[in-house]
């Protein structure tokens, strides 16, 4: 049996997404074998991140400054707001370098099954940002799930009185995708969203 420190390390690693008990044991063993070159620098980096990183008071992104580097960047178009569910979605959009506006992170999606209502999400500050003026378009980039769709529709209702154009990311056939490999829902959505060639 392992000592309590090793078991605690394994249990904490096992809480990470994608790591089950066996994977957590392998990672723990790897960290322990490389204490000076990996475990100690990783521990220091985790402690530094825990101290320095905070949520942006404007959009909800995670950064070491508030407002975050995206909200503070004068080259970003403040008139375009892309609404995403989580910070990971924002990071995915930034990785692609396809959007030059600003973001709004909801912190999840509406889910009756999980007991997540509008009060648990960062919706009030989005409404205030739009109501303050200067926003030319709000892009709904919520996930293509039932909860994501429900959230987008709820936001559309909340923002309707401000008369700001709302758009939604397209859904359907991915670039390089083959029809034979698509699920029925994706194929049906692609048919409904078809456009002139």
From TrEMBL:
Name the PROSITE patterns for this protein: RECR, TOPRIM
The protein's matches in SUPFAM superfamilies, at most eight in alphabetical order, are given as: Recombination protein RecR
Listed A to Z, the keywords are: DNA damage, DNA recombination, DNA repair, Metal-binding, Zinc, Zinc-finger
The answer to whether keyword DNA repair applies is yes
Q: Where is the Toprim domain?
A: 79-174
Q: Where on this chain are zinc fingers (C4-type) annotated? A: 56-71
Task: Return the Gene3D superfamilies for the record.
Answer: 3.30.60.80, 3.40.1360.10, 6.10.250.240, RecR Domain 1
Q: Where are the transmembrane segments?
A: none
Q: What's the short name of a Pfam family annotated to this entry? A: RecR_ZnF
> Is Amino-acid biosynthesis a UniProt keyword of this protein?
no
Give the family, as the similarity comment puts it: Belongs to the RecR family.
The entry's function note states: May play a role in DNA repair. It seems to be involved in an RecBC-independent recombinational process of DNA repair. It may act with RecF and RecO.
The protein's matches in PANTHER family, at most eight in alphabetical order, are given as: RECOMBINATION PROTEIN RECR
Q: In its UniProt entry, what is this protein called? A: Recombination protein RecR
Gene encoding the protein: recR
């Amino acid at each position: 049996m392992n000592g309590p420190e090793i078991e605690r390390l394994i249990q904490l690693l096992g809480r990470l997404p994608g790591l089950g008990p066996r994977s957590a044991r392998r990672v723990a063993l790897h960290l322990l074998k490389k204490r000076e070159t990996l475990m100690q620098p990783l521990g220091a980096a985790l402690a530094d991140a825990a101290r320095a990183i905070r949520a942006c008071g404007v959009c909800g992104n995670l950064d070491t400054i508030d407002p975050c580097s995206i909200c503070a960047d004068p080259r970003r178009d403040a008139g375009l707001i892309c609404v995403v569910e989580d910070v990971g979605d924002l990071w995915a959009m930034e990785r692609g370098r396809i959007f030059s506006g600003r973001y709004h992170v909801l912190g999840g999606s509406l889910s009756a099954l999980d007991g997540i209502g509008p009060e648990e999400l960062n919706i009030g500050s989005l409404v205030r940002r739009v109501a303050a003026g200067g926003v030319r378009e709000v892009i709904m980039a919520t996930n293509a799930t039932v909860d994501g769709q429900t959230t987008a529709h709820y936001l559309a209702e909340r923002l309707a009185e401000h008369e700001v154009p709302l758009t939604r990311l397209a859904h359907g056939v991915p670039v390089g995708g083959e029809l034979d490999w698509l699920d029925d829902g994706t194929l049906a959505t692609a048919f409904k969203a078809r456009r002139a060639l």
